[in-house]
Records
---
Amino acid sequence: NSSKDFALKWVTGTEGPRQVSAKISSTIAGNINSTMESDSGAEAEANVTAAANLLNNAAFAGLTKDADWWQQVRNTTTDAQEFRAYALYIIDTKTLDRQVAAYIQRFLDDKNRALSEAEQSIYKGLIESLLSSTIDLNT
């Protein structure tokens, strides 16, 4: 079935790692935003967006597809058959944390002059938390 083949190709191709990067990006941006309540503003928000974009486009070494499967379901509204495809990607937590910390450090190095002291402190604290494994990116 071509719809099943398309779903499997989509989830097991480049889309899986892209979705992992997007999830990490939104987790980090949420963490920064919740920490940055007092130092908010258009420039701070633009910096969070820039950091999130960097992570959203990241490629994480060690991320591997462990399994994939598909499921055929019936849409009760239209009585049509649909295929859903799933893939399980895994990566060692410490490996992921170190890579995310390195991406954030790269962002800090590039944007250092544009960041306020409070923002720099938040990003540096995030890096320290990642390297000491006190932030869970796998939620």
---
Amino acid sequence: MIVSGGLKPTLPFLGGGMTEISRRRSWLDVGALLVLSVGLRAAYAWAVPRMLDSADAIHYLETARAFARGDFFGIDPKIPVLYPLFTAGASFIFGDLEVSGQAVSFFFSALLVVPVFFLSRELHGARVARIAGVLVALWPWLIDYSNRVATEPVAVFFWMLGALCLVRGLRRDGATWWMVGAGAALGALHLARAEGTFVLIAACGAFVIAGVGERKRTVRYFWVYALTAGMVLVAHAAYMHGLVGRWSVNYRVGFIGEQPEGSSVFAELGRTLVAMSADVPAVMLGPLLWAFFGIGIFARRAPGVPGFRGEWIVFYFALVQWLVVIPVLSPAPRYLMSAFVALSLWSARGVDAAGGALGAWHARVRHLPLAAVLLWMAAH
């Protein structure tokens, strides 16, 4: 785009569609958020002893140990390969496998502020994006997972990156390479979590949401996405064929949904539905973020921010995440971590809207809503 004042048009990067000045300002914001995110997580890692808190953590480290030895066909086929691969790679730097697994979680947890910032800026503007980045950097739950041997930080990062690429690419000025990025990011999610396969496939629905009035270009972009994602699926299926002797895009899914002895699938399904619809969301977002989420839903859109399609795509992704984890029959909050991070973008918008309303009354109280949320998080 040509900008008045002699500024040059910008390249379609993560900050595409902005002037050179605003793009630089966005990257300065991201740099500050990264410093905050890394600093808080480093302080937590120093203060809290490392531990293995789940049976899966042992399996991830066993798989990483095999990969580090060059043994790619002597592993448990139920373990998604991406996190162990990253851990095996990190082990050549850190030596100790547990430390390496934590380092991978730390890296992706700290880096999460990048797709969160740019996705929030795409949906709600730069001011809201800064608030969203601060919330993610300071969220105690996310900080805690940065110190664990767990796949969640890796999976949430690629979930948000895939959503960003789809939202940005399906704009009218979106470029084809965003679709390649979306297929690669959600392909990585498929390799990181069992439910990632279903998110990767269900992402095709985003093209239906975006296709109204833009059918020809959207269909072309769909095929770019499908080709990229298909290459990941075929390559992984071929690897599973070498591992277990049969083609499978998701070997682990057949072992999900086992109910405890003495219970029935219907009882466990009912318990999981109640927990994942009421108990878990109420606890993990908390009263303040939910209150500001409600404000954010109805807040006035900032000038110059695109229409509602991007928001509907993110809501659709959050709904898909909720639907695909229900059959797991385990109401663990970590299964909805990606959806909660996505919904917090509207909480950030609500914080900004509430602050704006207070600021119109008195400038000194504009930042009270954000301060209240940050104090609430700090108390935890």
